[in-house]
Amino acid sequence: MAAPAVPFYGKDVDRLARLSIAYKALMESETFLANWPVTVATPAVFKERINSYQSAYEAAINCDRRAIAARITAGEEAGRTWQKIVNYACSTEQDNSSLLEQMGALTKARKSTSTYPPRQLYAPDLVVVNVDQRGGVRASCSRERRRYTYDVQVTEGDPRVEEGWYHKASFGDCTKMDMDGFQSGKDYSFRCRMIGRDNSLGPWSLTVTIMVT
User: Judging by beta carbons within 10 Å of its beta carbon (0-12, 13-18, 19+), is residue 81 exposed, middle or buried?
Assistant: First the structure.
């Protein structure tokens, strides 16, 4: 099959969320991972480039020109790696359509005669609390806990400044979203949104700000 173009567009936070979903789907496909060719970047390399993009994005929050240039380069590298993996998935003899859908590179076709409209994504009811682990928190939402992927973003500055938000983690179960690596005694703001199976993005939750212990 012809390889589709990966949906690598929009804001950096949206790109990072899609990359994380693609990597998670890739790692859960044991059959596809077997006999990986030496000519294609490995999943480990893909993960390294996602991490590099995440780090470069966070470093560029203060609008330093060099940091912004590094962020652009890192983003392009991650996007190209994602595209090469998708190209490889489309070149094999096995049908990888399901994997491509999970990676967000292929939209599942819907019959126009369907009587069931797509489920509307809503803003999650986010709660964030401290846990016993130093520098750790637990976020949760009460409904639809396994139907979607949940994208959690964090900012250390003014939550009204969009450029300060960055992707922290993605979860399949929103009832127990544990995160760590925060600085104790510092205020952090959190927000969460649902990501549908077709890679559609839901609205953000209300912002929750806490001092991490």
Answer: buried
